[in-house]
Amino acid sequence: MAKILGIDYGKVITGLSITDTKQIFAFGLNALPTKKLMIFLESFFYHEHIEKIVIGLPKKLNNKKEFLEKNIQKFIKKIRIKYPKIIIERIDERFTSKIAFQAMIKLGLKKKKRKKKEILNQISATLILQSYLIKNKN
Asked: Rounded to whole angstroms, how far apart are CA atoms 92 and 56?
């Protein structure tokens, strides 16, 4: 069975996560500068069989889309053109950054490490993907 890639798309740093082959668990994969994301994915898709990408949908509390959504739509368009067989799904990502930050505290990460956006985005991507897996299990 193919894997699913989770993406917490950020203006500067993008977090990535991936499922196991049975698509039960999400694991943190990486966080990298967003400007290098397409280059990374090209190599990654060559080595991994990915059937689906789940990208966080940033919304405000009033359900309106965040400003970052325009950038995400451009990214999605590039993916659909370059990899038309990969399914792209979206899932509400409200509060994932806050939950990820609280997880970092509970894990005992020092303040200096908690300031690293890479760790926060990687955890957020994992939360996005795990939420998707739980939602679609039922």
From this structure: 6
Could you tell me if 13 and 119 are in contact, meaning their C-beta atoms sit under 8 angstroms apart? Answer: no
At which residue do the structure tokens 């609280």 appear? 102
57-63: average pLDDT: 67
Mean pLDDT over residues 93-118, rounded? Answer: 60
Domains and CATH numbers, the chain: 3-133 (3.30.420.140)
pTM of the predicted protein model: 0.83
| CB neighbour burial string for 14-41, b if at least 16 within 10 angstroms, e if fewer | bbbbbbeeebeebbbbebbebeebeeeb
How far is Cα 9 from Cα 127, in angstroms, rounded to an integer? 13
